[in-house]
Amino acid sequence: MSGAVLVAIAAAVGNLLQGWDNATIAGAVLYIKKEFNLESNPSVEGLIVAMSLIGATLITTCSGGVADWLGRRPMLILSSILYFVGSLVMLWSPNVYVLLLGRLLDGFGVGLVVTLVPIYISETAPPEIRGLLNTLPQFTGSGGMFLSYCMVFGMSLMPSPSWRLMLGVLFIPSLVFFFLTVFFLPESPRWLVSKGRMLEAKRVLQRLRGREDVSGEMALLVEGLGIGGETTIEEYIIGPADEVTDDHDIAVDKDQIKLYGAEEGLSWVARPVKGGSTMSVLSRHGSTMSKRQGSLIDPLVTLFGSVHEKMPDTGSMRSALFPHFGSMFSVGGNQPRNEDWDEENLVGEGDDYPSDHGDDSDDDLHSPLISRQTTSMEKDMPHTAHGTLSNFRHGSQVQGAQGEGAGSMGIGGGWQVAWKWTEREDESGQKEGGFKRIYLHQEGFPGSRRGSIVSLPGGDGTGEAEFVQASALVSQPALYSKDLLKEHSIGPAMMHPSETAKGSIWHDLHDPGVKRALVVGVGLQILQQFSGINGVLYYTPQILEQAGVGILLSNMGISSSSASLLISALTTFVMLPAIAVAMRLMDLSGRRTLLLTTIPILIASLLVLVISNLVHMNSIVHAVLSTVSVVLYFCFFVMGFGPAPNILCSEIFPTRVRGICIAICALTFWICDIIVTYSLPVLLKSIGLAGVFGMYTIVCCISWVFVFIKVPETKGMPLEVITEFFSVGARQAEAAKNE
Q: Which of 307, 275, 314 is nearest to 449 (CA)?
């Protein structure tokens, strides 16, 4: 996974520039107002500081839609150019107006980075370490602030500090970021698939994952193009084909599905389990309890929680007892490659698509899962410009498993993707069943329900057979086109990925799952900004001054302005170890768990600050309590409420609208940031410091309740599976409300 890690580190350099800019202006403004005589004109001084916020807010309004149109990488390149040009303008700045222009350009770069870096990292990172990699922007942003404070502090000790040099030196790291975005960062493979550029997407995935076989993930990215399909949660007992009597019995038994694998010539049989999976039972139980008790807990939270119940220790669907399961959907290496889907290779109207029609025998195990199950139909299936079933299999060709979790259809986090064709004719001649996509996830340990094998024809009930119990999300494939059904009397019609990705943005935003995700994302961004981080940052120099740090520094011959910069640097430095801990825990404990664990510490810290400002006490005791509370607040904020909202927002939206949805969340972030920043001085004058911290305490309490009832756990799950669960959960909630 070193490729994905290096790419994430390179992308996170953009956040280092953001942190660098935030810290630099805090120090440079002390010297700017002296040169331009702004002591009597605080509005202009405030505008200089706020211009970056204004620029970020303005650019965010269009950044998501443009990123969905042009791609993530071009927008990151643009952000590095804006950083570079803005820093040069600030380095020149003969007057206030030019300085304001430079700050505006700089703000444009900040806005693009805040919106796009989380998207980019989420779309390139493997599910198992996505949380860790998406915490990197928080770490590099704080690291950039620390380095900048140290630089500005060093310059403040000079006889005549230059604010132009303080601001303009940003062009050096921005130039590094430019070269990284141009020469090192690839385009997001998910965006490439959405545009039908399959060959490029495959090459990028191979580079990011460090292996040749990425067919399972390629198929997953194609499936992620769909929005709002009808999804059901089922459970299968899966065992080898030799546990059943013969293929005739499978064809007759409507409760069985035959799956094919290439490895060592094995084929597999899946049988739906009556009563449903642990996942479906828990989700139904959660919905029922919510209705009976009038609980506000979202069924979506219960549904996601069920995924993490009774998971196998291996985190994969392979085990010593079941050595071939991880590649049960493998196919031979002699099949057409998935780049045949690439739009550059599309054949013209009326031309035949590449196909591998040959021997139709089901005994040919070196054949794709889908094509061999429907070969008899493909002979009579007409071709159109959109392609047919035989084209879809090109998106899932592989050459076999390559180790644990790297099976041909493995998609990360112990999930696998497969398809089934179950269309049959009933006694009246009507067709039932059809073409379905399945996300499979093992429940418990292989063989944990050995008694269930008796239900399979030919099972001897001795518990000797190899089988596994798996939950399944079953839905219509993304490339399945209902509009083309009339053109294909036999079998499903398939569309090209670039055609599937097209659709009405407004319609997609009104999908129940997307609306549910927007409530979570926007809610987290609002509550994060009003939870008190800006107020505590504002108050920190005063607290440390009371603790005697200022007196100590003045005795060392350091001026008050330099001392404030050094105090800010120390405050930022304290955050770095806490963020490093969060990077480790984000994928182990999970996003939801970290939020529910750290927010109570924020509440306690704020309460201590309220009490210490209301109750008269010894100055030393007051300083100690305030300092400890501030340090705890900072450390636990950056472990949970700091990175988690951006991580969750980058995970919960479908590929087609991910850019615009995250832009909506980012716009909410910037608007709330402006409100909090400019309302803080007014609130301090009207209700005092204790009142302000009291308000923040109430917001943190509301935040904990919101996370508990609305925010699901997404650790270790592929992005496409997360959005599928949001769709299922939204429909469950609608059904519960209607009942």
A: 275
What is the rounded CA–CA span in Å between residue 713 and residue 14?
27
State how far the Cα of 646 lies from the Cα of 15, in Å rounded to an integer.
Answer: 13
Residue closest to 635 by CA, chosen among 676, 604, 675: 604
Q: What angle is formed at CA 136 by the lines to CA 133 and CA 138, rounded to 5 degrees?
A: 140
Residue 89 CB contacts under 8 Å (≥ 6 apart), including other chains? 98, 99, 101, 102, 105
- Cα–Cα distance between 492 and 381 in angstroms, integer? 9
- pTM score: 0.82
Structure tokens at 510: 């009104």
How do residues 639-665 score in pLDDT, each as one tens digit? 999 999 999 999 999 998 999 999 999
Burial degree of 49 (CB within 10 A; 0-12, 13-18, 19+): middle
Q: What is the C-alpha to C-alpha distance for residues 647 and 644, in angstroms, rounded to an integer? A: 5
- The CB-side HSE value for 305 (13 A sphere, CA atoms) comes to 19
Q: What's the Cα-to-Cα distance from 67 to each of 191, 530, 655, 659, rounded to whole Å?
A: 9, 28, 11, 6
Q: Is 324 left (phi over 0), alpha (psi -120 to 50) or beta?
A: alpha
Strands 232-240 and 267-272: antiparallel
CA-based nearest residue to 203, from 194, 195, 214: 214
Instruction: For residue 365, name the pLDDT band (cuts at 50, 70, 90).
Output: very low
How far is C-alpha 256 from the geometric centre of its chain's CA atoms?
35
